[in-house]
């Protein structure tokens, strides 16, 4: 069984490695049902007991697949998180939507109000075949996703959304809530407004992009907010290396990023690690990180990453990459 770590000041305990279910929502390609089941089964057999999904992933397809898989497991044996901010409703069939192929025939609208959050959750409960989820993340709020429209969404969240999440928590429908985003600024803004149990931060605390170290890591430590780290390969470049066509942050990597990754690869090789292995160990050993999301549709990829993490990082890993020491920074572990 994998190590478990506490989320904030709640009673929610998550495994140190979690399964991110975006890929089984047909992200980038159609994933056959047997392949989706195989990778979920592999995660379960590896001791992973924290699964994260969202309505956004295939317009509900990821949630449906995960719900079917978990239906035969005892509810108390795993931790489940999903996200709010997008409300699904019956729509027309599409071949592709937002990078997900063969999505469920649902329309989508953004809504961060209390009513929108509850409507989103009720749909998720149905697709996931559960009566509660352990963690709810406010998904993709911030200018990174919404640009100039974000002001309206933030006002709705502050006016009624946060209060509704607290009421849902008080009623036992959820056990913890926080943010699921790709930017640090909105995290800092909301931590100034309220307490959050956790932040699922994608791509901003990685071997390559350490933006969150500037202010957010310390702020989370002060507030007792756990970090769940996603996007640890920065859209793939830390897995593939600085090859032609490598992607960073959902787009082809620019020259300056390729140069940074080349330097990181050389550093990793001095330790006898592949670049992907260094990225995995950076995230997994980072103080304050409650869990690291591994998102894939292939059981072989999941096994390769878990095998890498099964080996301790080299003794001088922290010195080479300038990462903080573990001692004194483990309030959320």
UniProtKB/TrEMBL annotation:
Pfam families: Aldo_ket_red. Signal peptide: none annotated. The keyword Transmembrane helix does not apply. One of its GO terms (molecular function) is pyridoxal 4-dehydrogenase activity. Gene3D superfamilies: NADP-dependent oxidoreductase domain (3.20.20.100). It comes from the Bacteria. Its EC number is 1.1.1.107. GO terms for cellular component: cytosol. It is an enzyme of class 1 (oxidoreductase). Keywords: Oxidoreductase. The keyword Cell division does not apply. This is Pyridoxal 4-dehydrogenase. It comes from Roseibium aggregatum. The gene is pld1_2.
């Amino acid at each position: 069984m994998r190590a478990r770590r506490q989320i904030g000041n709640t009673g929610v305990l998550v495994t140190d490695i979690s399964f991110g279910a975006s890929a089984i929502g047909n992200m980038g390609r159609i994933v056959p049902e047997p392949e989706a089941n195989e990778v979920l089964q592999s995660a379960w057999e590896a001791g992973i007991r924290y699964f994260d999904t969202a309505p956004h992933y295939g317009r509900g397809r990821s949630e449906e697949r995960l719900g079917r898989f978990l239906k035969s497991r005892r509810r108390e044996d795993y931790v489940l998180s999903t996200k709010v901010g997008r409300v699904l409703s019956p729509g027309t069939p599409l071949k592709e939507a937002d990078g997900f192929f063969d999505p469920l025939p649902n329309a989508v609208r953004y809504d961060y109000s209390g009513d929108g959050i509850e409507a989103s959750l009720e749909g998720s409960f149905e697709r996931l075949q559960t009566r509660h989820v352990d963690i709810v993340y406010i998904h993709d709020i911030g200018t990174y996703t919404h640009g100039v429209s974000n002001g309206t969404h933030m006002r709705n969240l502050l006016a009624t959304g946060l209060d509704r999440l607290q009421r849902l928590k008080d009623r036992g429908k959820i056990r913890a809530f926080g943010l699921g985003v790709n930017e640090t600024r909105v995290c800092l803004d909301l931590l100034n407004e309220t307490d959050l149990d956790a932040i699922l931060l994608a791509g901003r605390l990685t071997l390559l992009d350490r933006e969150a170290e500037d202010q957010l890591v310390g702020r989370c430590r002060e507030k007792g907010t756990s970090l769940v780290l996603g996007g640890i390969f920065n859209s793939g470049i830390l897995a593939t290396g600085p090859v032609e066509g490598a992607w960073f942050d959902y787009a082809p990597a620019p020259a300056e990023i390729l140069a940074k990754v080349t330097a990181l690869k050389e550093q990793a090789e001095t330790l006898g690690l592949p670049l992907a292995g260094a990225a995995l160990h950076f995230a997994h050993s980072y103080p304050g990180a409650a869990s690291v999301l591994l998102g894939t549709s292939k059981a072989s990829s999941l096994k390769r990453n878990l095998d890498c993490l099964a080996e301790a990082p080299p003794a001088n890993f922290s010195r080479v990459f300038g990462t903080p020491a573990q001692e004194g920074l483990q309030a959320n572990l």
